[in-house]
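WARN no homologs supplied; continuing
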Amino acid sequence: MGFLAKIFGIKQTDFRRLLIDGAIIIDVRTLMECKDGKIKNSKNIPLDSISSKIKKLKKQNQVIIFCCASGVRSAKACRIAKANGIQAYNGGGWRGLNRKIN
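OK structure emitted
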């Protein structure tokens, strides 16, 4: 846990534990962006398609970790999912998330 997290009581999400417990990673970048690299076993659903896929995602009954390039789009996807009753986490940028889970 980082210094600021300790001072402000910021709780760190254990993404590795979420994955062990059955969570899935959804990368909300465009298909072209994902061609430059992605997290192994992640699924690509671009942010502009998330709303149309919500029912399908909800039926899967799995925790979702969203990622993108920097964390902005994944935060939006996370809000959409949570508003629809899905347990979701913003994993931030895919490279940083990849370091946290490997």
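The chain has one domain: 11-101.
OK
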